[in-house]
Design brief:
8-stranded antiparallel β-sheet; elongated
Length: 276
Amino acid sequence: MIQHLTRKVCLFALSLALLLASGQTLSVSAHTHSQLSKLPVQLNAKASLSHDPRGMAYFALRNNGLHAIVTLNGLAPNSVHPAHIHSGTCEQSQEGAILYSLPNITADKHGLAYLDTTISGFSIPTTALALNVHNGPTLGSAMQKVAITCGDIKFSKTRADVTMGPTNDPNEAVSGSATLALKDRVLTVTLALQGLAPGSTHAAHIHSGSCYRSGPVVHAFPVVTASAQGTAQVTASFNNIDTIPAYGWYIHVHDSTDLSTQTGYNPISCGNIVRG
């Protein structure tokens, strides 16, 4: 009888100890979860913007003429661009005479373009040469004639590798930076630019994708307006944002606010967003 009662007391004490231990654990766990849920979520990111479009051109002199390959990214989607070899250099304020015409350069839906062609009757001149790609789709207006990217052609024996870069035409040498901060589901972005045409206005967006393969708009900035010195700064806030992706966002600045035409859409500056 006494042994049976002792066993009951021991079992009760053990059960009580387990219950207290379980309750204490639950209390600590709930308290910890409550504290964590109140911690602010903050992420930071940045982007360095440089001229768009960008790419390379490769030339090789062969028996049947000059073999030319041009690869570009950062063009307006599905756009068409006249291209020529001019006399002179990209640094000259006025384009030199057109010496050779290339077939039109055509971009796909992601702004990527590839041209492989042969220019017959070509001989390496003693004067400077430059490859100019124009805004297009024709040369029918001043806006269409704008050189959106240029590269000096410097032959080493029978070859030339050319880096395509900015030009001296308005809005075609724009650079800048952006900072992004996400806190409490509010994304704040500050965009600063230089090299714009004084007083010009521009659309700018955060896109999904990259500067090397364009994608759809994720967020739109207010209109970017250049100062008399060709600089601009705009800050925008976007609500209900859960995160800044580690990669897959970029910022595009366009030649104008009218994106309904190829010339107006023309991307003039781009930067991939990098978290951290």
